[in-house]
Amino acid sequence: MLGKLIRYDFKAVQRLLFPVYGAMIVLSVVIGLTSRSDSGSGYTVFQISMMLFMMIVLAAILLTIYLLVERFYHNLLGNEGYLMFALPVSTSEHIIAKILTALIWMAMGCLAVLVCGIIMGLFSMTWEDLMNMFRSIGSLFTQYQFSGDTFTQLMEMLLIAALTAVSVVVKVYASISIGHLWSSHRILGSVFAYVGFTIAALLVTTQIAEVMKMQSMWSIIAYLAVWIAVYGLITWYILDRRLNLE
Amino acid sequence: MRWEFESSRPIYLQIVTFLKESIASGVYPPGSRMPTVRDLALEAGVNPNTMQRAFAEMERDGLLHTERTTGRNVTEDTAVLEDLRRSLAQESVDEMLRRLGKLGMSSGEIVKMVAARAEEDAGRGEKIE
Amino acid sequence: MSILECKDLTKRYGSVTALDQMNLTLESGKIVGLLGPNGSGKTTLIKIANRLLQPTSGELLIAGSRPNEATKAIVSYLPDRSYLPEWMKVTELLEFYQDFYSDFDCAKAQELLKTLQIPDGMAMKKLSKGTKDKVQLILTMSRRAKVYLLDEPIAGVDPAARDYILRTIVSNYSEDALVLISTHLIADVESVLDEAVFLRQGKVILHKPIDTIREETGKSVDAYFREVFAC
Asked: What is the ipTM of this complex?
């Protein structure tokens, strides 16, 4: 069931995000091609494309955030909630499906930006430029104290990035859920909840940072996992026990 | 298309009346197979359970009977059918008498009116409709 | 074991009591009308049966269990609003229902949808409200469920469409299933019902077969309802 839920969540959003990512990639090709042109008109196209590109990346980021919120709110707590919660699916499956879909979209967004960067880079850099870049990236890793292997470091960083993304997503879901508890001013309630969570997290972090000396990778991961569990439980409890669709 | 039902009498009884009239007038000839409960319920726009109740009542009255595998058939018993015809006719007559009685007509007046009308129709070579 | 049972079911929203120690037992193979004025608790009852609400106290049992994932698989629910995603096309909706409900009869749904003559690639948002309502009804009734909960299926619908809807409900009748129709438009559904449940301020004040009510009162259920609920 989980896979099916993810599939439909994906379908609902792909109509909007694919065109945006597509436009990004097309623009990056244009940018790459015109980046080294000497002619006046070529340079104008380059400038315009660069501006458009930045606008589209901004739009993509905003759109992803907006969709993150909208999918959860609209599909589970709006009229569609009558369809979704009548399905023979557990509440936790609904929540996990939404989180995973959001994660997938965010990963695809990052991938798209990466691809654009590579495209632009490939078109505009010389071989030497490329080598220099790789060398400077490599030196970055050796500065950290964690483990010696670059590959493991990369994986650990990706894991932390993913968990951070998940915790942000679940935090948003928990906030929306708390807003749902009231029958009016739900959006206001959600915003307050989000701010409340941020403050609470800040307070806890400053207390704990002393005690735990966040040096080991795994303490960060554990810490994130705890927050994810807290937000997840709040969301689950409200959707499972306090649901009140209009 | 739904059948017309009066709102204050039980629906199944109204269906029984309707089916009795249909049998007596030959819509469902003797020995013929009745439509299924579901089909007739759908046609009438009623709950199949209600139709089932009507059918059960008809079976109790001996007007329908269930054939082992082929479903429900109208009876072929001429005595029963004749009885039905008579009782339906009697009901109409009783109803007419009751209504005309309310108008203050005597039985004599009523019989005269009926006879006059019958003669008129016979004179025009028409059956009584 | 009855298919739907309410035992001292109570639901309170703050100071408002929507269901008040309600008791009700419904059996399969019946089409039952849940009749009452607005605010009598009809929708609340149906939502609890679908686990869209939790009771304050007491319980509602479907085939002996409290509402859960398993009961959702045998209950087919038609809410009183447009609940299907606007972006979905009819073909995608069929796929959706088939994906999530093992008792969904896709062929039957397609058959019924054909009569609506909806162009293949058309999304829900392009359809008129009346057509949307019919699509929702068809999807709901195309499941071979044990309980059908229809919340105001004919309100806000023209008379011809009402006939269509009631015909669809009756032709879908199964001895294994309970159909519970919640409505305040009694005259239209009366001939289709087996039993009537009168609900007033969250309590069951009557639960009888339609014909019994007619026999005992000499009135239609609609007329009797007006008498009982006269303001």
From this structure: 0.93
